[in-house]
Amino acid sequence: MQVKFNNRGADFYATLKERTEAYFQSKNIKPTGNYKLYIKTFVFSAILIFCYVSLVFLNPPVWAAILLCVLLGLDMAAIGFNMMHDGAHGSYSNNKKVNEVMALTLNLLGANSFFWKQKHNVNHHSYTNIEGMDDDIDVNPFLRLHVSQEKRWFHRFQHVYALLAYSLMFFFWVFFRDFKKYFTGKIAKYTPIRNMTVKEHVIFWVSKLVHFSVFLVIPMIYAGVVETIVGYLLITFVLGLVISVVFQLAHIVEGTEFVTPQNDESVQVESEWAIHQIKTTANFATRNPLVNWLLGGLNFQVEHHLFPGVSHVHYPEINRILKRTCTEFNVKYIEFPTVTGAFFSHMKHLKKTGVA
Ligand SMILES: [Zn+2]
């Protein structure tokens, strides 16, 4: 499948890029992560170790264990949003090795960084909301995110069961979707996985083994089999729910666009690449400092899609430049002022596409 954007006279992105580069030059700062990101790395890593040690070795009472599992699930999501996501985009640090280590935190959480980089950096970022190319909207038959996807009778209830499906998502990712990609050699409908080197094969199996040992085998030995299974399920449910909802709020809401290829060979997108990104992406709660701190810039998703190589710690500043440039070029910028507003918009979208 070939995707073509109409990049003739692509003045919008050229201007925006120029202004953003001028900002970094005038402040004399690098577009990669800084001390703000290092503090987060320390805090989220410390919480991970604290929860793990307490749960596995300190035999906490049931109520405390439940709270610790929920906290661990949330903390793992924060590691994914802030450290892994920047690392995988190469924006965490100037040092490639540091980025690689940060990207590999995803393997510790149970998934696979090699597949993520292709699924996310290539399929999702280049071909946002294009049916058959963007793996993030490929969750059929469970959910119908766009009207061109096959409709089943149960989709009319999808806004009711979506949160349950989201909470199961990470568990399926770790135990099923990675292996499906590994054995079928495909990401989304149209894209083959680029050749896996021997090193990548080894990393795939070793890190699955490490994850299962750290999060299942060792806890079973020290804290009990049933306790471990229940705890593991609770952690992955919280993690899956939070990750899915955050990613959905950025693209699958009212007002964002979708592209349906007319045939299996090629698709012509009518706008320039950058404008396609803005049409398919929404920001939310960008004035909420807690959301900004926790979500690793995923609520500044428009800036992220336009400048994936820039660390999320700089997005609030780029947001000002972006809004000004959008107004000048008459480009519609989508933002939901609150998380709740974006969440209900997502639910309305699901309800609509479930019956359309
Ligand atoms: Zn990204």
Largest sheet composition: 2 strands, parallel
Number of domains: 1
Proportion in helices: 55-70%
Number of helices: 14
Order of helices and strands: EHHHHHHHEEHHEHEHHHEH
Strand content: under 5%
* Largest beta sheet: strand ordering: 1-4
Number of strands: 6
Low-confidence stretches: none
Termini distance? 27 Å
Shape: globular
Q: Label the structural class.
A: mainly alpha
Based on CA atoms alone, the radius of gyration comes out at 20 Å
Mean pLDDT: 92
What are the distinct ligands in this entry? zinc ion
Descriptive keywords:
binds zinc ion, mainly alpha, 356 residues, 14 helices, 63% helix, two-stranded antiparallel sheet, two-stranded parallel ribbon, 6 strands
Question: Any overview of this molecule?
Answer:
- With 356 residues, the protein is mainly alpha-helical.
- It has one domain.
- The chain has 14 helices and six strands.
- The chain has helices spanning 11-27, 35-57, 62-89, 96-103, 105-109, 113-126, 158-184, 198-223, 225-251, 273-279, 289-294, 301-306, 315-329, 339-355, and strands spanning 2-5, 186-187, 191-192, 266-269, 283-284, 335-336.
- The strands form three sheets. It has a two-stranded parallel sheet. Strands 2-3 form a two-stranded antiparallel ribbon. It has a two-stranded parallel sheet with strand order 5-6.
- The longest helix is centred in the first third of the chain and has 28 residues, at 62-89.
- The radius of gyration is 20 Å and the shape is globular.
- The mean pLDDT is 92.
- The site of zinc ion (ZN) has 6 residues, from helix 3 and helix 6.
